Each structure stands twice: as structure tokens, then as C-alpha cells.
Amino acid sequence: MSTDELVTPGRGGGLGDVIKSRYLLKLLVSKELKVRYRGSVLGLLWSYVKPGVQFVVFYIALGVFLGLEQSAGNPRGLPNYAIYLFSGIVLINFFTEALGNAARSIVGNGGLIKKIYLPRQLFPVASVWVSGVHFIPQIAILVVACLFNGWRPSLLQLAAAVAGFLIVTLLATGLGLLFGAVNVYFRDAENLVDMLLMIATWASPVLYSWMMVREKLGQTFFNIYQLNPLTVGVETFHFAFWLPTTDGAEAIPPHLLSVWIPVALAISAAVLLLGQLVFRRLEGRFAQEL
What we know:
Layout: H1 15-20, H2 22-36, H3 46-65, H4 81-108, H5 110-115, H6 122-148, H7 155-185, H8 188-200, H9 210-225, H10 229-242, H11 256-282, H12 286-289
Helix pairs in contact: 2-6, 3-4, 4-6, 4-7, 4-8, 4-10, 7-8, 7-10, 7-11, 10-11
């Protein structure tokens, strides 16, 4: 065997190994779902309960008490604020669950990693896939609610939603690989991720309108704000699900389709590449560190 064929022990071929090990990925996703709901009465129904409770709390606090819901006595509010709010919550919940679980996936599967070798990237990627499974019933509820409110999206709006989901998936996978690897060596990474996830809901227009950001902080800060891929992802969901349920007079962020979606895709892809590079650099000593 030539030296060109030798590889460092414990290091795999990156995300390419995940594609080659699709069957193992399926087994890991199935295992995570079974372990998570073992002994649970509601099981997968928690995918409906958690976002439902979250939605009710935010809707009452912000839509009713703080007047973000448009009404006859409050014309400055957002029309169909319930749809606006839930379409953002659905996407941000997917991100927070995916990143939170992916960041803990290597340490959480330490026993398995120390016993046998399999592509380490499978663990954070499986965590993202599990979050995708939980995302499906939530998006189904959103679609039903939109249909009851006269939802008639265009193909462009549906394509924007797919692009938004792809942006957030790439971002969550990249950050999951990055923090999942770093967390093996520095357990403070978990606390940093928890802090980021706490900020995520408020750092994107889930609960409020993007216009508030521009009006209060100016165009320069708004441009910086738009560089957050989560912001663009949430805005694409508003464009696809909320906007068609209004009279069409509501504005979307300028250049959302022509500028910000491509920029967000590029940033998320760069984060994925960075996460993959860091993961491959650190994975060689996972078994020893765990």
C-alpha cells in the first residue's frame, strides 16, 4: 500500500462519508427518535405541543398586550399576526433544536464513539435530521392555518421558502459540526450555544417586523442585521406563508430575493465549510478526549 492511501486513525472523509453511510444515518436518526420518546406518553405529539404553547405565550404577550396584532383600534399592527408569528416560530424552532442537539451529539454518543469507528459527522447530521422530522408536523399546522386564511402562494414564494429552509439547515449543520467538535475539548461550548440559542429568537424578525429595526436603528444597522442568515430565512417564510394571507400591501425587505437570499446562502455555505474543516481537524482525538 502506498503512503497516499494511508489516513490518520480516527479521521474520516468528511461529509462525503455521511452520504456513503446513508444506512447508518437512517439507523442513528431512528435511534435518536426512539431514545428521546422512550417512556413518553405523548411521544411525537410533543412536536405539536411545544410550539403550540410557545405560540400562545408570545401571541398573548406581544400580539394582545403589546398591540402587534392589527385591529380596528390598532391599525399600525401587523395583519394576521398569528400567521406572521407562527411562521417564524416554526423555522426558528427547527434551528434551535438542530443546533442545540448537534452541539451535544458527539459528547452524548461518547460511549459509542469509544467502542467502534464510524464517521463522526453522522452524529451532528443525524441530530439535524431528527429536528427535520419534528419540523414536518409544525409546517403542516402552519399550512393548514394559512389555507384557512386564504393562502394562495405563488411558485416564487414557495421557492423562497425552500431557499429559506436550506439557508437555516446549512447554518445549523455547520454550527453543529463546529460546536460539536469544540465541545469535546471545551465543555463551555455548550453554554455558549445555549446563549446563542437564547438570542436567536430575538435577533431575527420572528416576534416583530423588520421595519421596526430599520425605523429605530437606521439603514446601516439594518444592512448588518440582514447579514444574519436566520433573519433572511425567517423573512422568506413570512414572504411565503404570511404575505399571501394579507391584502398584499405589506412590504418585504428590499432586495430580499435578488440580494439577501444569495448572500445568506453564501454565508451559510461558508459556515458549513468552516464547521467541516474544524471538525475534521479535531476528530482524530475524539475517542481519547471522551
